[in-house]
Design goal:
The longest helix is centred in the N-terminal third of the chain and has 15 residues. The chain has a 5-stranded mixed beta sheet with strand order 1-6-3-2-9, with helices on one face. By secondary structure, it is of the alpha+beta class. Helix content is 20%, strand content 40%.
Length: 136
Amino acid sequence: MRKLFVLLMVVGVLVGCGEKQLSYSEVTIDQVNADVKSFIDGIETSEDPEGNGIYMFNETEVKRYLYLNQDFLDSGKGFGDMEIKTNEDSIQIYLQENDEPTEDEYKLYNITLDRTYEYMQVFKNDEETHFQLIGL
């Protein structure tokens, strides 16, 4: 029994020391903390008519939230896919529109980085663009 316990401890340590992996998933506003909700509320109550609808909230150095609202969409379009690519010192976020109109009012993604990056780029329909606002 003691040998099994020691073996499980060694396996647990080895698994815990594995490399972190970049991950992202779509979430709803109900699934995020009050700071993220407050950031989104500030965006939605803002009177900035020139926004491109792409916002980033940095909760920690490796935990981010990407928020897209209706300003992201061209007329008659819907929200499409998101993909993240990385290289040595940068992360690239690729956002797509869908030709089908959407009833979704927003898209919100929880992004967990595998490490810190020096540069971050965002692309809409494969053309580089910018974040309208990055919050902390």
